[in-house]
TrEMBL record:
Coiled-coil regions listed in the entry: none
Biased composition (Acidic residues): 204-213
Region ranges (Disordered): 46-74, 106-151, 180-235, 579-662
Gene encoding the protein: ARP8
Lineage, opening ranks: Eukaryota, Fungi, Dikarya, Ascomycota, Pezizomycotina
Superkingdom, taxonomy of origin: Eukaryota
Protein name: Actin-like protein arp8
One Pfam family here: Actin
């Protein structure tokens, strides 16, 4: 059949005879045996003669003639790479398995040899001249040889003090870590409640509000309490009743202990002290008769800020007013006094820059040729480390920066390879076990009490015993300095000092005459530093206030879980077995397997070691990703406060607006039990390691300077753990001040020539930012 034409009759195969008949343009095939060639000729003639056929189109040139035909030139159809499937039976990758694949190690290997040899000229030996000296004959280098470590700056920031210095210096420069800025009111005018806290009547509160509202320059700096001697005699000193009950209980415990040690306890000693203090009449001293009158910082220049000692010695009633800002509080960011991160950065930058210039004679143009060692806490916040590192490398533009932990620095300063470091600072106490130059992670403890809490407790005890200077307020600068001086002079942990003694002191207020006071003390000089072993008596309401209001917790970018370092010893302080009931407070905390937490072992005594409830910023419920167990015990009836995980909450309460609140811990554990807990997690059941740590306890920090502290700690450790063997409480060797031991150890580390691998250079930080830290830290970041 020919397409396009109609056929009639029965179709026959080609092998039959074919005949043609043209009729009205139709083609009919009949049986006739013809060849295919003949059929082709017939069909061609039909196309030429058929009137219904369309006209034949002209022949088009082929693609080959036009040059469009494809030739075999091995060109791909597209530029996308072809990914072939992996042979899963045998495949291998070496991604990030070689040192040359890490930027920091590749840059170090590719650095030219002269640069590696002179990477830190500040580490050159004494008297060795530089290789690229100014003079061609080396005379300039011989006249001014560089001291070993003179180009390395050690920075150790603390809650109260900032210690800086060159690695070549014998001792650091200590500057109060505070800045005073112009403000409408000073800090004691903003807070009407004095420190320490008292029980106040409604009339006294009204008088204080009226007095604070008076901002005239001639008003009294002590408020309405600056009264005559006759009125002051009749004015009682009210202290919180809860504190008084705890104070009396610990005092009875001390008397029992002294009787057991065959020491004489005079009856009615405290009553005699109270009667004397009530009747004492202060004495006014004219300014020209006072050889030790205070020198206050002049503010006539109307400067915007003062730093360090100058800030602390600004008069509280100065015009214009200045307010003190402390960038660090309780060992972390002070987020309560700051409203923005920018202001915090400005204050820290100003404090460091002016301290470098005034104490070390280092100007802004000298930073690029210097290296810096930053001392950080053992149990740190990642946000704190990255903020300080970014400040030193990008704001100050140091050539390179190294991070060093406090406990390891203490072992370097003391010359120990392994020890249990107990660092009692101003506002925090850290305990860590160091073995062969490395901190054992699970042994780290961070307790939120220190020397400032001892000062506050000492003032509360004095006020309980009718302290003649009843108007003392630690929010005022001169009163704070006075309280610190009284604590350093009179507190002691020797039982021989628990006798009635007479002391005197001078109150030197700005713009007023010096007043001389006399007072008697009894057991408060011993019980105030003893509060480190009775943390239940400490005022912890202001601890961690404003926490996480500016800086959020650090989270892992892959798993979105908190990645701050954790410690099993720290987590054990907040086990969900502590329930403090309003009706009964004699609940023991099961923290250690074989150690009794209760300070008072006699029946019916109050357990003073239960963790205190956090401040205003305490969370309500635990974080979902908290590593601490979150089961809660059966709650008794009545109002209770339950500690769950790392948080404190009222039973049955929750915060609907914050489904995953921040976990904040406020561990309050006696110091001796905290040391045992840290060593227990460090030894992990190994008795030999446990004895090694107990025989190498090193006390560091200003809080350990109290007389008799070493002997009392040793006695309490032996009492808690029998069979310890050779227990040794060590002090810094070579009569070195324990306050500067950590800085001294960091200076030793900064002068080592074999520590080039831990220095973070500017070029590395600009590319990798904080991702460079896993390659540049001596511990697991």
């Amino acid at each position: 059949m020919i397409p396009g034409y109609v056929t009639t009759g029965t179709p026959q195969p080609l092998s039959l005879n074919i005949s043609l008949e043209l009729a009205s343009g139709n083609l009919h095939l009949f049986g006739c045996n013809k060849t295919l060639r003949y059929l082709h000729n017939i069909t061609s003639s039909i196309h030429r003669t058929s009137p219904n056929m369309p006209p034949r189109k002209a022949n088009k040139p082929s693609k080959k003639d036009e040059g469009l035909a494809r030739t075999d030139n091995n060109l791909k159809n597209h530029s996308w790479p072809v990914v072939y499937p992996i042979n899963q039976k045998n495949f291998y990758t070496d991604y990030l398995k070689r040192d040359d694949q890490a930027l920091v190690w590749r840059q170090r290997s590719e650095a030219p040899r002269p640069e590696r040899e002179t990477k830190d000229r500040g580490l050159m030996p004494d008297g060795e001249p530089e290789k690229d000296g100014v003079g061609t004959d080396g005379k300039d280098d011989e006249e001014h040889p560089e001291v070993w470590g003179s180009r390395v700056i050690i920075v150790h920031p603390g809650s109260r003090n900032l210690r800086i210095g060159r690695a070549s210096d014998a001792l650091p420069k200590t500057i109060p870590n505070v800045i005073a800025r112009q403000h409408t009111q000073s800090e004691w005018e903003e807070d009407p409640d004095p420190r320490p806290k008292r029980l106040r009547t409604d009339e006294e509160s009204k008088e204080d509000q009226e007095d604070v509202s008076d901002n005239t320059p001639h008003r009294r700096t002590r408020g309405s309490s600056r009264k005559s001697a006759s009125v002051a005699e009749k004015e009682p000193s009210y202290v919180e009743s809860s504190f008084q009950s705890l104070f009396n209980e610990i005092s009875q415990e001390l008397k029992t202990q002294m009787r057991q040690n065959k020491r004489r306890v005079l009856p009615n000693s405290r009553e005699g002290v109270i009667n004397h203090n009530k009747k004492y009449v202060p004495e006014n001293i004219k300014e020209h008769n006072d050889p030790y009158r205070a020198e206050w910082t002049p503010v006539e220049a109307n400067l915007l800020h003062f730093v360090g000692h100058d800030a602390l010695h600004i008069a509280d009633n100065s015009l214009p007013r200045y307010k003190l800002f402390w960038p660090l509080r309780d060992g972390v960011f002070n987020e309560h006094d700051y409203v923005s991160k920018r202001r915090w950065h400005e204050d820290v930058t100003v404090i460091l820059r002016e301290s470098f210039l005034k104490e070390l004679n280092i100007g802004p143009g000298d930073y690029e040729g210097l290296s810096a060692v930053l001392v950080i806490p053992d149990l740190y916040d990642r946000v704190y480390v990255t903020e300080m590192l970014d400040l030193l490398l990008r704001e100050f533009r140091f050539s390179q920066v190294c991070l060093f932990q406090e406990s390891v620095a203490a072992t370097y300063g003391a010359g120990f390879s392994s020890a249990c470091i107990v660092d009692i600072g101003a506002q925090k106490t850290s305990i860590s076990c160091v073995e062969e130059g490395m901190v054992i992670p699970d042994s780290r403890l961070n307790l939120k009490f220190g020397g400032d809490d001892v000062t506050t407790t000492f003032m509360q005890m004095l006020l309980t015993n009718s302290f003649p200077y009843s108007d003392i307020n630690l929010l005022r600068r001169y009163d704070y300095l006075l309280a610190e001086d009284l604590k350093v002079k009179y507190t002691s942990l020797n039982e021989a000092d628990v006798v009635v003694q007479f002391h005197n002191f001078h109150v030197r207020a700005p713009g007023e005459e010096t007043i001389k006071y006399g007072f008697k003390t009894y057991d408060e000089v011993y019980l105030a530093p003893l509060s480190l072993f009775y943390p239940g008596i400490l005022d912890t309401n202001d601890k961690l206030r404003g926490r996480r209001s500016l800086w959020e917790r650090s989270y892992d970018i892959y798993d979105d879980v908190p990645n701050d370092p954790v410690s099993l010893a720290q987590n054990s302080l907040c086990r969900p077995a502590v329930t403090t009931t309003a009706a009964t407070s004699n609940e023991e905390t099961d923290i250690m397997d074989d150690t009794n937490i209760g300070v008072n072992s006699r029946p019916g005594s109050t357990n003073l070691t239960a963790p205190m409830v956090g401040g205003e910023g305490a969370p309500k419920t635990p974080h979902a990703d908290s590593p601490i167990p979150e089961e809660t015990p059966d709650l008794p009836e009545g109002p209770t406060t339950t500690i769950v995980g790392n948080s404190y909450s009222k039973a049955g309460e929750s915060d609907p607006g914050d489904p995953e609140p921040e976990v904040e811990a406020l561990p309050m554990l006696p110091l001796d039990l905290a040391i045992i807990e840290s060593i227990r997690y460090a030894a992990k059941g190994d008795e030999k390691r446990s004895k090694d740590f107990f025989s190498g306890i090193l006390l560091v920090g200003g809080g350990s300077l109290t007389a008799g502290f070493n002997h009392l700690l040793e006695e309490r450790l032996i009492r808690q753990k029998s069979g310890l063997g050779n227990l040794t409480i060590s002090s810094p060797p070579r009569e070195l001040d324990p306050q500067v031991l950590v800085w001294k150890g960091a200076s030793v580390f900064g002068k080592l020539t074999s520590t080039n691998e831990v220095w973070i250079k500017q070029s590395e930080y600009d590319i990798l930012n904080s991702r460079v830290l896993p390659y540049k830290t001596l511990w697991m970041w």
